[in-house]
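Task: sequence design from structure.
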């Protein structure tokens, strides 16, 4: 046992007396802010790139541009920025500070904050599993496209392939082509009939067989993930130097290429043309709030995990501002990359931009953009770098999501898992791979959509709402502010404290209530999800959230004493030692 741990185990530091921080008058929460045994980031940039890589994902490329033009173009930036400033960034900052101060994962951190809410940690891990079940399948689709791009003529260029139907219509480079409601582009048929083979499934009731090609792609993805995570943040921190920076190089190349295409200006005007009347619609503000929340990603346990490997005095405030700005700017720039190409397609079809901008979600990346690339000069090169970008964007987020589970579980059961990280990561990757098999079937796209909507959706927002409430009202905003002061040397300003106590929870409650009052029917391609699938979806959503009340009841039942005494114990953070800060082999009180 290292010297520091021997001292801690015997409690020899307890005689030092109470900590000097004013906010710790009652029940100070002890924390090991640095231990020799805990892994650390090799460099500061390893951490920043890991956080940026997690936050900047496929959703920045496919969801933000669509949400922006759908909700008023340039006018949408007003609610987007407001929701970011008052909701997204404060929650992002809060999680980075919590993880860095308490230096532990999403499960065990709650004994230092409010033990009754420990079920939040278990719920977060379950949601992260659901995400891994479908998100890596989307990366596998991108890998399939990446492999298919290594040809002189891209396979989704023409209608002369075995998977094409009589409805396949290729209008690029041709005059007097009639486009009807039944017409399908070569890119759409490549995606639906050759990659997904969704035409061989009648829906969720008959998902069909597993596509071995996609299973092989997914196996390669998880192999990369395993060897990036098996040794901890020292290995994943090196991998992100490639996976987090390559997308920006590719985005720059694609933006320059898009700007030179005929008709590109039409797409930009359509993207940014402000429709001020849209600001009167509640749905626009709900979309802005949901977009910034899912873009920055608080509540997934990733920020807690990644920041827990930081030095105690790292400036997490600056990190939160920098990474949030990078995230939001990436979303904005991605809009130019997408809409310059949509303007080009509108020019080629001789239609309005809105007629080619109907696809959203994965379809935007797997149908619309590849279709435009296929008809550019140098199409093979642009297809290769585009899908390489998609793969790296996805891998970064997968690294973060699985590291959240790994850190949370290993910190909760250190005696069992501390020296078995490689085996635990292997077991986790195998579980994620097996859980993804249903998404690799001919009807797998329907499963992906269901997991995306219900596996995460309102559950994660409700969990973050409880997390923000527990930290601000049960742990106490003064205590939390003093935690930050002990790390940074200054107390957070009034703006941040007001956001944490009132505005950010209200921001989350607003999203939850709006989504419950205005449920949207679920559909994919021409398939309408049946009522029984909605019930399955709600069960999936409840299967993560239910662990919060279950643990609360468990904690109350098994804690001795009267009800009042039990509540006091369950709500009070555990105290064993005064706060200390250890650096290398020495111990010193936190200033």
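Answer:
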């Amino acid at each position: 046992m290292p010297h520091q741990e021997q001292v801690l185990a015997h409690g020899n530091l307890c005689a030092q007396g109470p900590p000097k921080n004013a906010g710790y008058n009652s029940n100070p929460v002890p924390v090991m802010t640095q231990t020799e045994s805990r892994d650390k980031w090799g460099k500061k940039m390893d951490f920043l790139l890991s956080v940026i890589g997690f936050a900047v994902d496929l959703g920045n490329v496919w969801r933000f541009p669509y949400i922006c033009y759908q909700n008023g173009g340039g006018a949408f930036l007003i609610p987007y920025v407001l929701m970011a400033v008052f909701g997204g960034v404060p929650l992002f900052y809060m999680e980075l500070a919590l993880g860095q101060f308490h230096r532990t994962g999403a499960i065990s951190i709650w004994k230092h904050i409010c033990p009754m809410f420990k079920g939040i940690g278990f719920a977060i891990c379950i949601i992260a599993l659901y995400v891994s079940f479908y998100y890596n399948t989307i990366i596998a689709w991108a890998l399939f496209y990446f492999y298919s791009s290594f040809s002189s003529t891209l396979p989704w260029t023409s209608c002369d392939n075995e998977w094409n139907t009589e409805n396949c219509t290729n209008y690029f480079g041709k005059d007097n082509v009639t486009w009807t409601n039944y017409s399908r582009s070569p890119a759409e048929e490549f995606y639906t009939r050759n990659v997904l083979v969704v035409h061989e499934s009648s829906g969720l009731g008959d998902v069909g067989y597993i596509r071995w090609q996609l299973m092989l792609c997914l196996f390669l993805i998880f192999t990369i993930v395993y060897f990036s995570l098996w040794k901890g943040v020292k290995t994943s921190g090196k991998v992100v130097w490639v996976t987090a920076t390559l997308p920006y190089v590719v985005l720059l190349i694609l933006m320059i290429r898009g700007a030179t295409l005929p008709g590109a200006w039409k797409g930009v005007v359509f993207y940014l043309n402000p429709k001020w009347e849209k600001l009167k619609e509640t749905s626009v503000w709900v979309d802005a709030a949901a977009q910034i929340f899912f873009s920055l990603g608080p509540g997934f346990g990733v920020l807690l995990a990644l920041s827990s490997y930081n030095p105690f005095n790292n400036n997490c405030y600056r990190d939160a501002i920098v990474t949030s700005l990078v995230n939001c700017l990436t979303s904005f720039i991605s809009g130019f990359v997408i809409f310059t190409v949509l303007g080009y397609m509108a020019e080629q079809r001789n239609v309005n931009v809105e007629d080619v901008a109907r696809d959203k979600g994965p379809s935007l990346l797997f149908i619309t953009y590849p279709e435009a690339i296929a008809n550019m000069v140098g199409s093979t090169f642009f297809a290769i770098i585009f899908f390489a970008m998609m793969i790296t964007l996805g891998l970064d987020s997968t690294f973060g999501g699985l590291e959240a589970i790994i850190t949370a579980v290993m910190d909760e059961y250190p005696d069992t898992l501390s020296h078995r990280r490689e085996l635990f990561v292997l077991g986790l990757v195998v579980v994620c791979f097996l859980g993804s098999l249903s998404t690799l079937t001919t009807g797998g796209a329907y499963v992906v959509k269901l997991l995306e909507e219900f596996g995460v959706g309102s559950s994660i927002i409700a969990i973050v709402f409880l997390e923000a409430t527990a930290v601000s009202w049960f742990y106490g905003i003064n205590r939390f502010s003093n935690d930050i002061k002990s790390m940074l040397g200054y107390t957070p300003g009034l703006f941040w404290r007001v956001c944490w106590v009132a505005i950010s929870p209200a921001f989350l409650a607003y999203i939850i209530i709006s989504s419950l009052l205005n449920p949207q029917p679920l559909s994919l391609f021409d398939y309408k999800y049946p009522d029984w699938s909605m019930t399955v979806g709600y069960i999936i959503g409840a299967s993560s959230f239910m662990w919060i009340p279950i643990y609360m009841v468990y904690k109350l039942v098994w804690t001795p004493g009267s009800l009042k005494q039990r509540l006091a114990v369950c709500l009070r953070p555990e105290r064993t030692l005064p706060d200390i800060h250890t650096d290398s082999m020495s111990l010193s009180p936190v200033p």
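The chain has a mean pLDDT of 86.
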